[in-house]
Design a protein that fits this description.
Elements lengths: L7 E2 L2 E4 L3 H12 L4 E5 L8 H5 L3 E3 L4 H5 L6 H12 L7 H15 L2 H6 L29 E3 L3 H18 L3 E5 L1 E9 L2 E10 L16 E8 L2 E4 L8 H7 L12 E2 L8 H8 L4 E2 L4 E9 L9 E6 L4 E4 L15 H11 L3 E7 H7 E3 L6 H4 L3 H10 L2 H9 L3 E4 L2 H11 L11 H12 L10 H9 L3 H6 L15 E13 L2 E2 L6 E3 L5 E7 L20 H20 L1
Parallel strand pairs: 1-9, 2-3, 2-10, 3-6, 10-22, 11-19
Antiparallel strand pairs: 4-5, 7-8, 8-9, 12-20, 13-14, 13-19, 14-17, 15-16, 16-19, 18-19, 21-22
The chain binds flavin-adenine dinucleotide.
Keywords: Flavoprotein, Oxidoreductase
Protein name: FAD-binding dehydrogenase
InterPro entries: FAD-dep_OxRdtase_2_FAD-bd, FAD/NAD-bd_sf, KsdD_DH, Succ_DH/fumarate_Rdtase_cat_sf
């Protein structure tokens, strides 16, 4: 180990320069505090996961919703939130209060606050997580997923701009390649952090790729407050499996990773060791429509398909999933059903007509038109489908494209022999399922719940325009070619975490604040230690980072 770095002093130390950390640092510096923003990654990865995100934000009763004819209200959103969260534990005291405060934010000042920083929204509101079919159950009663014009980078930009202005003014200093290994506690209060300086990355280092963990020095940073904004555990599949709850079946042996390697979860244990309490660590949010990225950025890189409702969904053995497990309806409900199937993958079967209209891919790099604010590109997408989806169709190892069902099944059976392996699909049985489903198409109503849901979705203008294909027979050659997609479980979000009060102060197991220690963002379950309870309504993660980061930054600054 070479030299020990000088001990540095600040008012507030923020651990993690993702979205929550940037927001917290900007707010604390706005209040006149000196801030050190520490991250194990290099400057190239500033913004963390949010940079890669689609920039989808949960807003309630927004002008965009009203323009699309959507009637929403805080009351309806509260019903949806509580029906999804299903809070049922003593530990849910603070998460529930955070949920209520967050709903006030999402139905109140969130949009205007972002707007005055230059944030803009794509006008067609998406309908994510349509739910489990019960009015008071899980899911969004109405479309609420507002995509940022500029996607993830467009969410990060205003806060990066504010932080960099503070750097210029000498109020914020960055400490990249500083990996925190310990929160220093003296006299019962957090007084700083200690850790290792990691070797510099080569100049050609690319954002999102794994960086070296070679240590070149020690550091100790001292401050009057420490805000932990280090993200979740989704990049560490051993931790995901360890925390996997029995209610979702057995943990999958095979998963793809929806997050970069820095989402390693280490800081959670480190902060616990300092005396903070972790709650709801068995609550997590992983997707069931993951595909292997044919052009990966990080190891085992998976992309989530954001599906419209029309694809036929089969388990690995070819059995159609029971209602209401339709694409885009109930993420964890479907995950549970799939874990019970005994296999780590499932199948979508669809047509060219469906893929063109209904497949979107999550991630800023998979949406160059929206990320690049390219109006022409967005118009082309509406006419021809997104270019990156076509690239996956051609190069993705999980895709089978065929003119006949016989060839499609042969392709599916070839993929069933590739890890994770599974049973062969029986062509006769699949034909029977598809013909039975196709017979329901002749009338604009049906007894098949999925087809009923497709017709219902098209009553929403946004879906009819750009998300739900006109119902048609899957076996109609004019709608072809046929497509099958092998879907993997994709690790993503951590819904539990460091328990905090409404000021973002970390609590001890005695339920009292640990002086000087705060948390925000995914490490904090996006507020309180899990403000989404068991299920998310989508677009609530970035929003949770904004709200909890803002709260912790302001509170830490005010407490000094
Ligand atoms: C592809 C993708 C699409 C998404 N789409 C959406 C969407 O549309 N809508 C939505 O709401 N959410 C979305 N999300 C989720 C959302 O982006 C994340 O939940 C959110 O950005 C997490 O932010 P964070 O600041 O809490 O953590 P992170 O972004 O993970 O940042 C944490 C930072 O802490 C650093 N760190 C960790 N440990 C240490 C340590 N010991 N020492 C020093 N530094 C440390 C890390 O290096 C990292 O830079 C998406 C995520 C991904 C990956």
């Amino acid at each position: 180990m070479s030299q020990r770095t000088a001990v540095s002093q600040a008012d507030v130390i923020v651990v993690g320069a993702g979205l929550a950390g940037l927001v917290a640092a900007a707010e604390a510096a706005d209040a006149g505090r000196k801030v050190l923003l520490v991250d194990q990654e290099p400057e190239q990865s500033l913004g963390g996961q949010a940079f890669w995100s689609l920039g989808g934000l949960f807003l309630v009763d927004s002008p965009e919703q009203r323009r699309m004819g959507i009637k929403d209200s805080r009351e309806l959103a509260l019903q949806d939130w509580m029906g999804s969260a299903q809070f049922d534990r003593d530990e849910d005291f603070w998460p529930r209060r955070w949920a209520e405060a967050y709903l006030d934010f999402a139905a109140g000042e969130k949009r205007a606050w972002l707007h005055q920083m230059g944030h803009r929204i794509f006008p067609v509101v998406g309908w994510a997580e349509r739910g489990d079919g019960r009015a008071d159950g899980h899911g969004n009663s109405v479309p609420r997923f507002h995509i940022t014009w500029g996607t993830g980078p467009g969410v990060v930009a205003p806060f990066e701009r504010r932080v960099r202005a503070h750097v210029e003014a000498g109020r914020v200093a960055f400490a990249f390649r500083h990996r925190v290994d310990e929160v220093a506690v003296e006299g019962g209060a957090a007084v700083g952090v200690r850790g290792k300086v990691l070797e510099p990355v080569p100049p050609a280092f690319e954002r999102g790729t794994a960086s070296s963990r070679v240590e070149v020095g020690d550091f100790e940073l001292r401050g009057q407050a420490v805000i932990v904004t280090s993200g979740g555990i989704g990049g560490n599949h051993d931790l995901v499996r360890k925390a996997w709850p029995a209610r979702l079946g057995s943990p999958p042996a095979s998963m793809v990773s929806g997050v970069p390697a820095h989402v390693d979860g280490r800081m959670i244990q480190i902060t616990r060791d300092a005396g903070a309490r972790i709650i709801n660590d068995d609550r997590m949010w992983h997707y069931v429509e993951g595909i292997r990225n044919w052009d990966p950025i990080w190891a085992n890189h998976g992309i989530r398909i954001l599906p419209g409702p029309s694809s036929l969904w089969l388990d690995a053995a070819g059995k159609r999933l029971p209602a209401p497990n339709f694409p885009g309806f109930d993420t964890l409900g479907t995950l549970k059903v799939l874990r019970e199937s005994g296999y780590d993958y499932s199948w979508f079967v669809l047509t060219q007509r469906i893929i063109e209209k209904e497949f979107a891919l999550s991630g800023s790099e998979q949406n160059p038109d929206l990320t690049g604010k390219d109006v022409r590109g967005v118009i082309d997408r509406a006419r021809k489908g997104p270019g990156p989806v076509e690239a996956f169709k051609q190069h993705g190892e999980d895709f089978v494209v065929a003119d006949t069902l016989t060839d499609l099944v042969a392709g599916m059976n070839r993929l069933a022999e590739v890890e994770p392996t599974g049973p062969r699909i029986d062509e006769g049985e699949l034909r029977r399922i598809m013909e039975a489903r196709d017979r329901q198409i002749a009338n604009p109503y049906a007894k098949d719940a999925q087809i009923t849901a497709m017709y219902a979705a098209r009553h929403y203008r946004g879906d009819k325009l750009s998300r739900v294909a006109k119902p048609h027979a899957l076996l109609d050659p004019a709608a072809g070619p046929l497509i099958a997609v092998k879907l993997h479980i994709l690790s993503r979000k951590t819904l539990g975490g460091l328990e905090t009060d409404l000021s973002g102060r970390c609590l001890t197991s005695a339920g009292v604040p640990l002086p000087g220690l705060y948390a925000a963002g995914e490490v904090n379950g996006f507020g309180g230690g899990g403000m989404m309870g068991y299920n998310a309504l989508e677009g609530t993660f970035l929003g949770g980072c904004l709200f909890s980061g803002r709260t912790a930054g302001r509170a830490a600054a005010a407490a000094l």
